[in-house]
TrEMBL record:
The gene is Gucy1b2. GO terms for molecular function: GTP binding; guanylate cyclase activity; heme binding. This is guanylate cyclase. The lineage of its organism: Eukaryota, Metazoa, Chordata, Craniata, Vertebrata. It comes from Molothrus ater (Brown-headed cowbird). SMART domains: CYCc (SM00044). Pfam families: Guanylate_cyc, HNOB, HNOBA. Residues 477-605 form the Guanylate cyclase domain.
């Protein structure tokens, strides 16, 4: 069930993180989440466990033991805490009733078409206080989960630390079908702290001293009176003669409701119930001997299986054992006598009216009656819903008024309806989770596209509906570039060739903007514009743009001129100065730069030389002490600006070509 796989996911995420779970599930080839009451193939769980061992580098037995411990805590967090705590007053009773718990849970999981295939447990006490725990399962290789679960339960519920080791491991022959049968030796030690242990010892001694003091103070007359007061009841129900002190102890126990010693039941000399009342009061019981011959049966089971009215017939002719899966023999039943037994009627032996109905199942306990050498099967119909009751054409009235099966059917009907609603909500939640995940992925794509068009802080302001104020930057470095003889190339080529050439060139340039952390402002035709120090001011804006320009010259050599087949040539111009920057327009808004610095940078490019990086004097001033090789061009006439002293950037003396290009 999905509950198991969800628990395994929770363990990995909680202890090793989401990334480890994602890696593990991808290797196992399974989905990311599981529905609690949905049935999944065992192979999914096995794959997850196998991949967990490989990804975490931990042996399978360690992984399974840790999973067992975590599974116990996961069950408690999932609302099964009180249910588990009430299974037994000690570890032996707890283990002994695990099968009963699985039987109850199968009612809940009956909403699915597949029955819960739970493991089975049988426990034996040893004289030295240890126990032998027998574990049966259809699923091989998962036995190491058991020490984890039982150990965690023993520590949490009974404050004892246990050790479990495998003493036998076989293919079970006693049960029908091949089952894995593991026998664990369980040894336990109480975890009393020293102070608590001393208090416990002193309180026990105090209790014993108090009893002696009471016994000394009571005179013979009080004892006689106490004996007479309880005489009638003692003579009528208890044939065993008791001492005066035992009689008095019984009075104190009954009077104050405090049991000072172990409980000793009393039995009548003879059974005060006639056969007819017994068979009517327990309408679904059966008594059979060692040869499986029926000696007695309740009235309701006789009505459903008329063959049982013939005393002496063999029980296995009319029923088969569904759980535990053992042969129908007295020896097998005695071995599993502490388990709940489920019988199912055999179709061929049922009356004609039952041929089309589902077979009746009975669930109850076996009790061996040593004096009679017979087995008593106290049972009830195994019915989970009103629908199952109707399918067998039975009624609530067919079940004894004292039998809680009546209430269970009605309560479980409501519970199954609630579980179906819960499953639907869980499915809807999973659908919403997947949609939300896809929405988040699409949102990231949209944001990536938006951040490629606008600076991130500007884009975020626009998303929030805020007005983006224009900002003044006192110093930044602007670069322009264009393709030499681009007009001639366009005249001699197909448009698609121009597009392919520019796309190849701009992809290279775009990668370099990331390498050198400069902002791409825009491209118009073959012109490419970037800026350093805007929108985030940085003191190294000139060096970043200079290194980017050197990378552009190198990258352009890898782009082919579609006319000549030779590498294209570009001109690059750089200028440093103040600008005003802001967002222009509402439809397809652009982040634009304004000011004379933009014009001068454009003039540096247009008055440049092919395959050279043209610097203005202000750009030169920013770079001359930064380990760059720069040569003087001299004074040139610049359109609209008159004479200007300019320079050429040759190389970065301290950076290799790979560093400039951002290659490893």
């Amino acid at each position: 069930y999905g509950f198991i796989n969800t628990c395994l996911k929770s363990l990995v995420v909680e202890k090793y993180g989401e990334e480890t779970w994602e890696k593990l599930r991808l290797q196992a080839g399974v989905q990311d989440s599981f529905l609690t009451f949905e049935v999944y193939k065992d192979e999914i769980t096995m794959q997850l466990v196998d991949k967990a061992c490989k990804v975490l580098g931990v042996p399978a037995d360690i992984v399974l033991r840790e999973f067992g411990k975590y599974f116990f805590e996961f069950c408690k967090r999932s609302g099964y805490d009180h249910m588990l705590r009430t299974l037994g007053g000690n570890l032996y009773e707890f283990i002994e009733n695990l099968d009963a718990l699985h039987s109850y849970l199968s009612l809940s999981y009956q909403a699915s078409l597949i029955e819960m295939n739970a493991p089975s447990f049988r426990v034996e006490k040893n004289e030295d206080g240890s126990m032998h725990l027998h574990y049966y399962s259809d699923r091989r290789g998962l036995c190491h989960i058991v020490p984890g679960i039982i150990g965690a339960a023993a520590l949490d519920f009974f404050n004892i630390e246990i050790s479990m080791k495998i003493v036998n491991q076989t293919e079970e022959e006693e049960r029908t079908g091949k089952k894995e049968h593991i026998v664990f030796l369980v040894t336990q030690n109480p975890l009393f702290p020293c102070k608590e242990r001393n208090e416990f010892s002193s309180s026990s001694q105090c209790l014993a001293d108090s009893e002696k003091q009471i016994e000394n103070q009571l005179n013979k007359e009080d004892l006689e009176r106490a004996k007479n007061a309880n005489g009638d009841r003692g003579n009528s129900v208890c044939p065993v003669k008791k001492s005066h002190w035992k009689t008095l102890r019984g009075i104190i126990t009954l009077g104050k409701g405090k049991l000072l010693r172990g409980f000793d039941p009393v039995y009548p000399k003879s059974l005060w119930i006639d056969t007819k009342t017994f068979c009517n009061g327990l309408p679904f019981h059966m008594v059979f001997d060692k040869e499986l011959k029926v000696k007695q049966a309740g009235v309701s089971i006789q009505k459903i299986v008329p063959g049982l009215q013939t005393m002496g017939i063999c029980l296995d002719q009319y029923f088969r054992i569904v759980h535990p899966e053992v042969p129908f023999t007295i020896s097998s039943i005695q071995k599993f006598i502490n388990s709940q037994f489920v019988f199912q009627t055999r179709r061929e032996m049922m009356p004609e009216s039952w041929k089309e109905r589902p077979m009746l199942e009975l669930r109850g306990q076996m009790m061996w009656m040593e004096p009679l050498q017979c087995m008593l099967y106290l049972c009830s119909p195994l019915l989970r819903t009103l629908h199952e009751l109707e399918e067998r054409q039975m009624h609530i009235a067919d079940i004894a008024p004292h039998d809680v099966t009546r209430d269970l059917i009605l309560l479980n009907q409501q519970r199954l309806a609630e579980m179906e609603l819960s499953s639907q909500l869980e499915r809807k939640k999973e659908e919403l989770r997947i949609l939300s995940k896809h929405l988040e992925e699409e949102k990231k794509k949209t944001e990536a596209l938006l951040y490629a068009m606008l600076p991130q802080h500007v884009a975020n302001q626009l998303k929030e509906g805020k007005r983006v104020e224009a900002g003044e930057f006192k110093e930044c470095t602007i670069l322009f570039s264009d393709v030499v003889t681009f007009t001639n190339i366009c005249a001699q080529c197909e448009p698609i060739q121009i597009v392919l050439m520019l796309n190849s060139m701009y992809l290279r340039f775009d990668r370099l903007t990331t390498v050198h952390d400069v902002y791409k402002v825009e491209t118009i035709g073959d012109a490419y514009m970037v800026v350093g120090g805007v929108p985030v001011p940085v003191p190294t804006h000139a060096e970043r743009v200079a290194n980017f320009a050197l990378g552009m010259i190198m990258a352009a050599k890898g782009v082919q001129n579609p006319v000549s087949g030779n590498p294209i040539q570009i001109r690059v111009g750089i200028h440093t100065g103040p600008v005003l920057a802001g967002v222009v327009g509402e439809k397809m808004p652009r982040y634009c730069l304004f000011g004379d610095t933009v014009n001068i940078a454009s003039r540096m490019e247009s008055h440049g030389v092919p395959s050279k990086i043209h610097l203005s004097s202000s750009a030169y001033q920013c770079l001359k002490y930064k380990n760059f090789e720069i040569t003087e061009r001299g004074e040139i006439e610049v359109k609209g600006k008159g004479k200007m002293h300019t320079y050429f950037l040759i190389r970065n003396k301290s950076a290799t070509e790979n560093e400039i290009m951002g290659r490893p």
